[in-house]
Specification:
Radius of gyration: 22 Å
Distance between the termini: 29 Å
CATH class: Mainly Beta
CATH topology: Pnp Oxidase, Chain A
Order of helices and strands: HEEEEEEHEEEE
Largest sheet: 8 strands, antiparallel
């Protein structure tokens, strides 16, 4: 039996290449985004087993504090916009005026409409890597920025 267009949209996974990144509401092209993780630390509790009658300790594992999010963004270096976007942001740390920003990573459908969004809350840069230089290569110059954030919220459009 043939599937309808709507059934295909609901049943098949979206391709990973069709996404947009917005930093504080400004769309910026990135070649790679990684680290969109929601993870909790765990606490271990050891207690006696008085109710069960079994000898020995009972170990319980419980979720604890949310771990901070570490995200990596990679993009090709483009004249004017690269320095103005990433370098300017990380350089504010030297004067203790660092601005935390919300970042959206939006996975899009074939028309470019956002379907699922990952909202990265209160992100700030911790590292900016220059590209590796190689006289034998003709690859694009790719810079990489590491960010730390308070958390990630997933939203469906």
């Amino acid at each position: 039996m043939a599937l309808t267009k709507d059934e295909i949209k609901k049943s098949y996974p979206l391709p990973v290449y069709n996404y947009k990144v917005e930093i504080a509401g400004v769309a910026i092209a990135f070649t790679e985004v990684s680290g969109l993780t929601i993870e909790y630390n765990t606490s271990t509790y050891v207690e006696s087993q008085t109710a069960s009658g079994i000898a020995g300790a009972r170990t319980l594992y419980m979720p604890a504090q949310l771990k901070p999010v570490n995200i990596t963004l990679k993009k090709g270096i483009v004249r004017v916009t690269s320095v103005a976007t990433l370098y300017k942001w990380i350089s504010t740390a030297t004067i203790n005026q660092l601005e935390k920003k919300d970042i959206y990573v939006r996975l899009c459908d074939e028309q470019g409409k956002a379907v699922i969004s990952w909202k990265v809350i209160n992100a700030f840069p911790t590292k900016l890597d220059a590209p590796s230089f190689d006289a034998k290569s003709n690859d694009a110059a790719i810079e990489s920025m590491s960010l730390m954030a308070d958390g990630v919220v997933i939203e469906e459009a």
